Amino acid sequence: MSERKSDPDRDDSERAFFGRRKGHKLRQHQADLIDNLLPHLALDIEGEKPADAREIFDPAADDVRLEIGFGGGEHLAAEAQAFAATGFIGCEPYVNGMAKILAQIEAANIGNIRLFAGDAAELLAWLPKASLSRIDLIHPDPWPKRRHWKRRFVQDRTIAAMARVLKPNGEFRFVCDIDDYCAWTLSHLARSPDFKWLAERADDFRQPWAGYTMTRYGRKAAREGRKAAYLRFRRVG
Asked: So where does substrate get bound (predicted)?
């Protein structure tokens, strides 16, 4: 989970994603990856919007998925390797997390990942309508204090933004070990006409979906006795 060093009471409600830009000092090879590999994979949302998100990738992808706040990149890298014909966009403003995914991309020669080191809301606004088959948000910052709830990624406006870019029957998947944030997410998605919660029985949200790659943070939470919920929502309409 990423954190941001800033005034915790600053009104930054127009920003939909909060993350600390830099943490521990990068090792030399990590710094080299940021300088030399990232520019080849980074999306430039200041440029012309793509007509088709599949064309972001070379060769063009069969479909496109987005992971918001990918942390150490374990899940993103595993998914990209498992679904080679799918294009994956990873959004993470935390520089150390970006360095970690770049190391995995280099080591495994992964060619179907593109990266964005910025605000996920801006990325969603840049992407074409109905261009994504899935969006993943895994162990996001919970911002547990009430005065900070406006900083949570899941808000009415970001739900609407995700609905715009998801294809009909596309999915938003959310993993969290903080009960309050899970309840928050369920309540916000429940009042959206664009999404339907897919759980039919308790194990549908108590157990990871098939093929899920547990992240380092997820393993840490389990060791510390915190149980995650695995929520899936389908884009309707």
From this structure: 145, 177
User: Binding site annotation covers 119?
Assistant: yes
For residue range 104-160, list pLDDT tens digits in order.
999 999 999 999 999 999 999 999 999 999 999 999 999 989 899 999 999 999 999
Q: Which of 141, 156, 203, 204 is catalytic?
A: 141
Write the secondary structure of the chain as one string of H (helix), E (strand) and C (coil). Answer: CCCCCCCCCCCCCCCCCCCCCCCCCCCHHHHHHHHHCHHHHECCCCCCCCCCHHHHCCCCCCEEEEEECCCCCHHHHHHHHHCCCEEEEEECCCHHHHHHHHHHHHHHCCCCEEEECCCHHHHHHHCCCCCEEEEEEECCCCCCCHHHHHHCCCCHHHHHHHHHHEEEEEEEEEEECCHHHHHHHHHHHHCCCCEEECCCCCHHHHCCCCCCCCCHHHHHHHHCCCCCEEEEEEECC
CB 49, CB 125: distance < 8 Å: no
Q: Is 67 annotated as a binding residue?
A: yes
Annotated binding residue 194: no
How far apart CA 111 and CA 168 sit, in angstroms, is 27
Q: Is 177 annotated as a binding residue?
A: yes
Active-site residue 44, yes or no?
Answer: no
CATH number listed for the domain at residues 33-38+50-235: 3.40.50.150
